[in-house]
Amino acid sequence: MPTPPLSDLFINGTWQPASERFDVRDPATDTVLAAVADADVPTGLTAVTAAHDALPAWAATPPRERAEILRRAWEIMTAESAAITRTIVSENGKAWADAAGETAYATEFFRWFSEEAARIAGDFRRAPAGDKTIVLDHRPIGVCVLITPWNFPAAMATRKIAPALAAGCTAILKPASETPLTALLIAGILQRAGVPDGVVNVVTTSRAGELTKAMLADERVHKLSFTGSTAVGRLLLHEAADRIVSASMELGGNAPFLVLEGTDVDTAVEVAMVAKMRNGGAACTAANRFYVHASLAAAFSSALTRALEKIRIGPGSDRVNDLGAMVSTVERDKIADLVRTAEAEGAVVNTAGEAPDRGAFIAPAVLAGVAHGTTITRTEVFGPVAPIVAFEDEADAVRMANDTEYGLISYVVGGTVEDAMRVGRQMDSGMVAINRGVASDPAAPFGGTKQSGLGREGGFHGIHEFLEPQYLAVGL
Ligand code: NAD
Q1: Ranges of each domain in the chain
Q2: Ligand 1 pocket, mutate which of 177, 251, 285 (most atoms under 8 A from CB)
């Protein structure tokens, strides 16, 4: 295997250069980390050929064997977690602790789906009319195109690769052009774990649109699994429609965070710090808008600002830092623009701490006195900014929380668990975190309602995104 950083295409079990390359940069230092192979459409389609040719043998591989290969991938990735973490930090910019947390979460998908590979259940029953037996089997859906974003370069890849392989599918992964190096490291791990040639291919490109369009138009592709923005997801759904390609979509979020009357402010801030600051706020699950009971709003704002003032901002490579760089200066500037717009729309901005001048850093901010319906409450912030809206009436808070086209996750912190559960059940989102700042777990179904997506990843549901039910009507 070539030595890292791996920068070639991984197709059919071999590392292949390309005639063009694009730079991957470290957003904390603005230095070039690697010049990565830039696949064009014909090269990308050779990955489809590899995945297509590898499909019959992999689909016929006994589930136990597939499980053991995934288990080995879990073992190798666990042993090499420091290298993965270092790569995530360098290309994404996030803090070391965030990257280490991501590595652990990402690795766990291999273990979870190694266990699921051997437990794909079917059904067998007599038809009510008594004329036949209904047998339900599950078949691998086929060749899968997997597209992932830059904010979790390891976890978004393994959350798709592991269930696809467990189900007996083959795959082409197209990682985000900002963060392809982690995906290439994972390809190397899978190869060493014994994944046969062609079963997983990784195609890096700066021409995502052209390449994906060509893959979705190829009749050998049966599945698209996408994680990214709602805008790109919508476009891909249109493209998938032409050939009725099965599509799973993990899209944007705009998570409300409710602090109910009677909640202890310190507890609420502790939960809020996790929900807001994990991954520097660059998470689809990040708390985006805080609805705080009017009796607590001022105390909550100042306690949250104080907590944020304690945060150390700087390169993730220095492990003492809590908040790393944003992925690029473009993303950082979008966040700064949103804060300026919020201020113009009446918010009071309290900036906490100071960001280093060099690199894509931004200091956290608490925005007090925000009105529901203003731009910041309608936009995915994707950074360390906490807008606070005060509410008087719980029913009104629930209405405002659900007043969004997104429905990925909601957070509820309540005086009592009963209060929080009662309000949590009224949230129109695929996930609700009750009295805690993080919900993601490989053993739980992750996904959203409304324009946050279609389908679920992880849990018992994740493998079914890659399986096609087949009903056999057996004459008696
Ligand atoms: P993005 O939509 O810009 O890009 C995601 C992926 O799509 C990248 O690999 C990109 O190269 C590719 N892409 C871009 N344009 C494309 C096109 N025309 N055709 C095919 N592929 C294309 O998203 P991003 O900025 O990388 O990630 C941030 C977004 O991802 C946020 O909206 C966030 O909420 C969302 N996200 C969602 C989840 C989830 O599980 N719901 C998880 C992480 C991130």
Answers
A1: 9-251+452-475, 255-442
A2: 251
Helix extents (H) in 218-296: 230-242, 265-277
> Which of the listed CATH numbers 3.40.50.300, 3.40.309.10, 3.40.640.10, 3.60.70.12 matches domain 255-442?
3.40.309.10
- Ligand 1 centroid – CA 403 distance (Å): 23
Question: In angstroms, rounded to a whole number, what is the distance separating the alpha carbons of residues 224 and 378?
Answer: 28
CATH topology classification for 9-251+452-475: Aldehyde Dehydrogenase; Chain A, domain 1 (3.40.605)
Taking 70 as the threshold, does the pLDDT of residue 55 lie above it?
A: yes
- 250 labelled catalytic: yes
In a mutational test of the pocket of ligand 1, which residue from 147, 172, 245, 382 has the highest number of ligand atoms less than 8 Å from its CB? Answer: 147
Q: What is the pLDDT of residue 1?
A: 54
Helix 155-167 vs helix 96-117: crossing angle, to nearest 10: 10
Count of positions (residues) in the chain:
476
For the Cβ of 147 lying below 6 angstroms from any atom of ligand 1, the answer is: yes
* Distance in angstroms (rounded) separating the CA atoms of residues 69 and 300: 49
Cα dihedral sign, 188-194-195-196: positive
Give residue for tokens 């995906």: 183
pLDDT, residue 2, reads 54
Q: Label residue 5 by pLDDT band (50, 70, 90).
A: low
Residue 173's Cα: distance from chain center in Å? 14
Question: Cα-flanking dihedrals φ and ψ of residue 405, to 5°?
Answer: -80, -5
Per-residue pLDDT tens over the stretch 123-168 = 999 999 999 999 999 999 999 999 999 999 999 999 999 999 999 9
Q: Is the CB of 177 inside a 6 Å radius of any atom of ligand 1? A: yes
The reply to whether ligand 1 has any atom less than 6 angstroms from the CB of 380 is yes
C-alpha 118/C-alpha 135 separation (Å) is: 19
- Cβ of 383 less than 6 Å from ligand 1: no
pLDDT given for residue 318 in this prediction: 97
- Residue 127 to residues 137, 310, 471, 475, Cα–Cα distance (Å): 16, 65, 12, 10
Atom 43 (ligand 1) nearest CA: 284
Element (DSSP H or E) covering residue 8 = none
Whether the predicted pLDDT of 402 surpasses 60: yes
pTM (2 d.p.): 0.97
**pLDDT one-digit tens code per residue, 173-217:** 999 999 999 999 999 999 999 999 999 999 999 999 999 999 999
- Average pLDDT, stretch 345-372? 96
Rounded to whole angstroms, how far apart are CA atoms 408 and 250?
9
pLDDT at 3 over 90: no
Cα separation, 150 vs 175, whole angstroms: 8
